[in-house]
Amino acid sequence: MTSGRAPDTVRIAAGQGFWGDWLEAPYRQVTGGPIDYLMMDYLAEVTMSILQKQRSRDPELGYAKDFVSTMERLLPIVAERGIKVTANAGGVNPRACAQALADVARRLKLGGRLRIGVVTGDDLLGRLDGLLARGHNLKNLDTGRPLSDVRDRVLAANAYLGAGPVVEALRQSADVVITGRVTDTGLTLAPMMHAFDWAADAWDLLAAGTVAGHTIECGAQCSGGNCLVDWERIPDLANVGYPIVEAHRDGTFEITKHPGTGGRITVAGVTEQLVYEMGNPAEYITPDGIADFTTIRLEQAGRDRVRVSGVRGKPATDKLKVSVAYFYGYKAVGTLVYAWPDAYAKARAADRILRQRLADLGLTFEAMVTEFVGADATHGRLALEHASLADLPEVQLRVGVRSPDRAAVERFTREIAPLILNGPPSVTGFAGGRPKPEEIVAYWPALLDKSMVEACVEIVEV
């Protein structure tokens, strides 16, 4: 963006939709055409517990390391073109992530040309006991149970911060803003608030920016990827273009992508993304305000261009959502593939034999689930009613168990592989070997008064 008068249009490109997304996408976004901001979203609820485990083993970890290696490729380009970056790649250790990026920038001889904003304050793990002692019970939103019931098993606890601290970092001339658990939508809303100088209580405008953020937060999911409508006609997914928001001062915006890229931007595809993770469409609640999705108007404004307008908003609540991850027990999943003829019958027989052997050993599990992949795993009984089961060329038997007892899960893992030779015939394909017990991380959603959380913004000079 140029200095001086505030722009009337800002282009915000989605570069990552989750930790593990296509590594080529950010590079293609910054080189495929003009953009002002690159937004990269890395975090999900379970991701925070994974990162917290990493940090417990090494205090220098706890962030998405992919971000740093990706930025090593991008930094010379974004520095030359004046592209700013917002990313929640900091996970549970934003300062370490910022320091790692600063080290890369110095190695690239970008000293004096890069300011890194660091947003912290979302990590509540070290404050939980104090909050509980002060009467903040952090009750589970689904069950009403107080967090004290599982306090000794908590692995991570993070409040969802909004766009505010990201805006503050941009106001302090940060070129890259690294955050912990900032909402997915806030990473896109913040550049709009900053560029257009929107007030923190301009509810309709903030709602529009929130809708923009929600539309591109999952990357190519709104530009042709994972799309149900005419999916077989979506062109060149191997070269899919990730979405770009062209935002305007009045709160309207267009969703588009770079020319010459694959995928497709249509009203149908954008609509599919809008209903993703949707509860009450009239009250999409974020820390920044409430967006009324029933007011959204979509219009095909050209090839690979959808115009969004009419978004209305409501005032923000006085609460922040808190995402808590806690240890729940152990699980294991084993698979065997059975071939025609009678593949489904063989898989069912193997399941009966396995269950009998486990019962004979006196083993019980909190849950034991069987899927016959190729027969019923996706659509359940509906699939069984419409399938010609005798003609299935192959069926994968997939059995999972869950228990607080690691020893029981471990014994299950030793009982499925012998079926290859001492069960029904024609096991084939990749059985995957003996499965291993895995720890289960459970999710605990809660609310906390906003007054109990204070975001902090720091600037790291390179």
Helical stretch count?
A: 13
Dominant shape = globular
The major beta sheet can be summarized as: 10 strands, mixed
Low-confidence stretches: none
The order of strands across the largest sheet is: 11-12-8-7-1-2-3-6-4-19
Percent in strands: 25-35%
Estimated helix fraction: 25-40%
What's the rounded overall pLDDT mean?
A: 95
- What structural category characterises the helix and strand content? alpha+beta
Count the E strands: 19
What Rg, in angstroms, do the CA atoms define?
25 Å
Cα(first) to Cα(last) distance is 21 Å
Write a structural description.
The protein has 462 residues and is an alpha+beta fold. The protein is 30% helix and 26% strand. A ten-stranded mixed beta sheet has the order 11-12-8-7-1-2-3-6-4-19, sandwiched between helices. Strands 5, 14, 15, 16, 17 and 18 form a six-stranded antiparallel beta sheet that branches. A three-stranded antiparallel beta sheet has the order 9-10-13.
Compact description:
This protein has about 450 residues and is α+β, with helices and mostly antiparallel strands. Helices cover about 30% and strands about 25% of the residues.
